[in-house]
Amino acid sequence: MHSSQLHELIDIAAEIHKSKPIAYPENMALRLLNHQHIFVLPFLKNSDFHLDTIQNGLQELALIYRHDAALKTEIAKVGEQYLSKGDTLLHGDYYPGSWMTKANHTYVIDPEFSFMGFVEFDIGVMAAHTIMITMNIDCLESIKNRYPKTLNANLLAKVAGIEIMRRLIGLAQLPLKRSIEEKKLLLEMARTLILI
């Protein structure tokens, strides 16, 4: 991802976040579904979804994090905040599957998960995918500096870490071409971000 693309995505998110709807649906049914896929299912000790069908060695790697009580406590806290009512309109699924580029224009699609929440959720999800693309967490600082309002750095990091983990060891797998060693490194980065 080029820095100009990242800047444009941050700017689009900021525009969405500036919207002040008079009333907005809670969208709780989809949020509860998303909550399960982000904060619960990837971290179940006993899951019917065997990750070695995705990539050999991934199941064993996942078990490290599925048995990490401190990690799961932090994830649960962010999950509670995700379900609480916020004051900012969010896209709710701000990742590459919701971005389209055509003729040097970027479009954001699929707002069905939108809700009133906290800005660090959208920005953290975007940051997670940037980290997975670049294999570098330094983008968090660039994102914080570009976003026009102050972000809670710890919450941003936690959301980014959770999104990385759920995309690597959860049900919502991506067509991510990474070796098992690279995924191990990404999961270690993610754990560090969550436990900041």
UniProtKB/TrEMBL annotation:
<keyword id="KW-0547">Nucleotide-binding</keyword>
<protein>
    <submittedName>
        <fullName>5-methylthioribose kinase</fullName>
        <ecNumber>2.7.1.100</ecNumber>
    </submittedName>
</protein>
<feature type="domain" description="Aminoglycoside phosphotransferase">
    <location>
        <begin position="8"/>
        <end position="133"/>
    </location>
</feature>
<keyword id="KW-0808">Transferase</keyword>
<dbReference type="GO" id="GO:0046522">
    <property type="term" value="F:S-methyl-5-thioribose kinase activity"/>
</dbReference>
<keyword id="KW-0418">Kinase</keyword>
<keyword id="KW-0067">ATP-binding</keyword>
<dbReference type="Pfam" id="PF01636">
    <property type="entry name" value="APH"/>
</dbReference>
<dbReference type="InterPro" id="IPR011009">
    <property type="entry name" value="Kinase-like_dom_sf"/>
</dbReference>
<dbReference type="GO" id="GO:0005524">
    <property type="term" value="F:ATP binding"/>
</dbReference>
<dbReference type="InterPro" id="IPR002575">
    <property type="entry name" value="Aminoglycoside_PTrfase"/>
</dbReference>
<comment type="similarity">
    <text>Belongs to the methylthioribose kinase family.</text>
</comment>
